[in-house]
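Section 5: illustrative case.
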């Protein structure tokens, strides 16, 4: 099954993912001639940033969503970005052989169901000495014993309310979410040497309530798709309302959400 992404909505409301990704792109310290694979490239805007950093190299973005790939191909054409291309591809079925110097994955791997297979495919796709860098959601235990941002916590609270609970009764989160320690072990088991597996934090600023709601809508379709279409907006309104009860907007109407994401950097040694 592929998720039904709305690429235009994602493009407009994925500024949190973009802000996080730029941090890791900076850390890559690219020489400029690398061949890069971006797994789960989505709308392609981070893939396009990478292509500008490797003017003597190339970047291929792959995604399991044909809607996202069509959007990226249209938005970042090969005429304007000669060293950038996009194609359909499933992270769980990578067939490249030692072709890339760097493989990146931003906010995508926690959507995949079988991370072991994904990591094995990434390793086989990397040239000897190649690098893997990713940002992904991971289990993080706070003092309340819950993981995720305060916005995720607000969503969980609203999902448990009587009006919404029936829609989530059989709900099982797809995509496995491991802890940092578990990720590190998975990397080692797949033949990587992890250099950094740690959480990074961003104070994400949303210009207002509608923008915050847009960010939630653009990525929460696994939740909202369980609710009849005519009630989805009301669900998102309740989540946002619950969030701002606890974290009110600042004097300029901006809303701040403190978010954490796991950052992974690893290398593969020859075979
Ligand atoms: C939150 S978006 C991230 C997009 C982009 N990397 C970014 O950071 O803005 C997650 C993307 O992962 C893709 N994805 C999910 N499972 C995938 C899989 N098995 N193979 C390739 N892409 C996948 C989705 O289609 C979606 O475009």
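Designed sequence:
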């Amino acid at each position: 099954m592929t998720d039904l992404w709305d690429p235009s909505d994602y493009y407009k409301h994925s500024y949190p993912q973009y802000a996080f990704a730029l941090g890791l792109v900076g850390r890559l310290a690219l020489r400029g001639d690398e061949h890069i694979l971006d797994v789960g490239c989505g709308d392609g805007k981070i893939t396009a940033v990478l292509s500008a950093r490797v003017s003597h190299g190339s970047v291929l973005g792959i995604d399991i969503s044909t809607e996202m790939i069509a959007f990226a191909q249209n938005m970042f054409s090969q005429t304007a970005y000669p060293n950038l291309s996009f194609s359909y591809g499933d992270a769980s079925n990578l067939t490249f052989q030692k072709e890339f110097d760097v493989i990146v994955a931003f906010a995508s791997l926690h959507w995949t169901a079988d991370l072991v297979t994904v990591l094995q495919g990434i390793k086989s796709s990397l040239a000897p000495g190649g690098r893997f860098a990713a940002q992904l959601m991971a289990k993080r235990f706070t003092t309340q014993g819950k993981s995720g941002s305060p916005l995720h916590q607000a969503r969980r609270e609203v999902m448990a309310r009587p009006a919404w609970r029936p829609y989530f009764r059989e709900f099982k989160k797809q995509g496995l979410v491991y802890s940092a320690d578990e990720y590190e072990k998975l990397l080692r088991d797949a033949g990587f040497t992890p250099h950094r597996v740690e959480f990074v934090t961003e104070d994400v600023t949303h210009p207002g309530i509608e923008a915050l709601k847009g960010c939630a809508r653009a990525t929460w379709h696994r939740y909202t798709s369980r609710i009849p279409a005519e009630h989805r907006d009301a669900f998102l309104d309740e989540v946002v309302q619950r969030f701002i009860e606890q974290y009110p907007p600042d004097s300029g109407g901006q809303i701040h959400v403190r978010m954490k994401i796991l950052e992974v950097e690893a290398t593969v040694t020859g075979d």
